[in-house]
Design brief:
Blueprint: E1 3-6, E2 20-24, E3 29-33, E4 45-51, H1 53-68
EC number: 1.7.1.4
Organism: Escherichia coli
Pfam families: NIR_SIR (PF01077)
Length: 73
């Protein structure tokens, strides 16, 4: 799982091209998920906008648990 964190909206770390991207805004953090690089690059989808630090950590935890959870039949 690749993460990218950018301290501003110029996004120098290319956070939207990672599995999880976090970009600082004036009001908090934007959380992006499911980006992709390589042969078929794809910008990540915005999961949550302008969230505070505690909410960001909670969303990251939930997303990672969903991502690593084994499939059920």
């Amino acid at each position: 799982m690749k993460f990218g964190v950018s301290g501003c909206t110029r996004e120098c770390s290319e956070a939207q091209g990672k599995d999880v991207g976090i970009i600082a805004t004036e009001k908090g953090w934007n959380l992006y998920v499911c980006g992709n690089g390589g042969m078929k690059p794809r910008h990540a989808d915005l999961l949550a906008a302008d969230i505070d630090r505690e909410t960001l950590i909670k969303y990251l935890d939930r997303f990672m648990m969903f991502y690593i959870r084994p499939p059920t039949n």
